[in-house]
Amino acid sequence: xxxxxxxxxxxxxxxxxxxxxxxxxxxxxxxxxxxxxxxxxxxxxxxxxxxxxxxxxxxxxxxxxxxxxxxxxxxxxxxxxxxxxxxxxxxxxxxxxxxxxxxxxxxxxxxxxxxxxxxxxxxxxxxxxxxxxxxxxxxxxxxxxxxxxxxxxxxxxxxxxxxxxxxxxxxxxxxxxxxxxxxxxxxxxxxxxxxxxxxxxxxxxxxxxxxxxxxxxxxxxxxxxxxxxxxxxxxxxxxxxxxxxxxxxxxxxxxxxxxxxxxxxxxxxxxxxxxxxxxxxxxxxxxxxxxxxxxxxxxxxxxxxxxxxxxxxxxxxxxxxxxxxxxxxxxxxxxxxxxxxxxxxxxxxxxxxxxxxxxxxxxxxxxxxxxxxxxxxxxxxxxxxxxxxxxxxxxxxxxxxxxxxxxxxxxxxxxxxxxxxxxxxxxxxxxxxxxxxxxxxxxxxxxxxxxxxxxxxxxxxxxxxxxxxxxxxxxxxxxx
Length: 480
Ligand code: TXE
Fold this sequence. Notes:
About 50% of the residues are buried. Helix 6 links the parallel strand 8 (about 170-175) and strand 9 (about 200). By secondary structure, the chain is of the alpha/beta class. The strands form seven sheets. It has a seven-stranded mixed β-sheet with strand order 14-17-18-13-12-20-21, sandwiched between helices. A six-stranded mixed β-sheet has the order 9-8-7-10-11-23, with helices on both faces. A three-stranded antiparallel β-sheet has the order 5-6-24. It is about 40% helix and about 25% strand. Ligand TXE binds near residues 148, 206 and 234.
């Protein structure tokens, strides 16, 4: 299968005819080609977006909302087809794509179809000056959306939906590792009546296509989700061009477990937060910190539950853990396990490659649990982004908080306790953008989403996203 760019409502080959191989990680085979688009392709996408902007930014909110809703409906109509495509491209279980990724892509559009009708701006009366201020929230123009491979259509649409809802036109690039659903999404947009040029999708790797988007002087805002190192690079390129930036980067999220929690719920949720999507979610809880008095019991129960997880062909309904996204990423995750061992970590479950019947060349890894003694070890400090968690005990609240915060990342934390005082203390003192108490990854799309420290800058979600994708302009009128 040869994927094409989607520019001005048409499917186009890349100008220079360059392609990259696209792999199915569950069998370790190339199954298609994806354009490696050049600066010229990005320029064409930009021109299409620029030409579409005057009309799209003046489209009534009612019509915009209708089109976004239609996109949402069409995603749901194609649920099975898109879920199968996502699984093939990414290695995740089909049932996960069907229950999480694709429904969420549809929700992203429905949510912003509704939100755009409720978005409003402020006015301030300057009492004593006979003046009234009001704020216009103007779309920025042409914006860039760059997304990763872990939740491909989910995160691609999470950026595009608010961008176009706010009246912008978009040049978007999905990850070159998982381009398939983004490609299929172009047709959905055309079928839903999205005018040509409002969304343009260019495929290619980060250093050519992605870089061309970030460097483009007229693309005035970049919304990016991906690795922290890439985010830092993008910030350096974008800063002298004075671009608005939203960066959603890596995490090293703690699960802080106190003895007074609802144990069974905590146990089941911690298994999920550790290994969902092969541990390839920025929100996965990769450091499990457990109050000393229940540490040994937790360790035993957790390992027993982890042993029940089935690593296997993503097409099988009983598979809990599918394939790692790529050979390169598999190697990286495996190396982190080896480093953990060298640094004194004890692998108490997993750690090895799994050979799956009829998928012998796929990239499968056991869910891996490492007991560590030192929070400063590599496994506790670096984002591994695979089915690997570490575990260590703590004795006091103070120690738990210190361990939780002693990383460069600050995306999310899960706290397990029924103590109200502790809940409020930790909620305030955890250095993260999101704190879940007695739950994990419960997402209300109205809430601000994003991280502190090396986990990024800016917030997505709800009106925060519409604020990011608009520029406020103050109008001050004095009367006599
Ligand atoms: O991501 P990249 P990679 C973390 C995770 C993972 C690490 C590296 O720890 O191991 O990042 O993953 C595009 N200009 N996360 O290297 O490169 C790229 O083409 C513009 C966390 O695969 O950050 C892709 O579309 N764009 C994360 C997107 O950036 C560039 C999800 C993300 O890829 C570019 C994924 C450039 N110079 C990985 N270079 C999360 N926060 O959820 C690359 N890209």
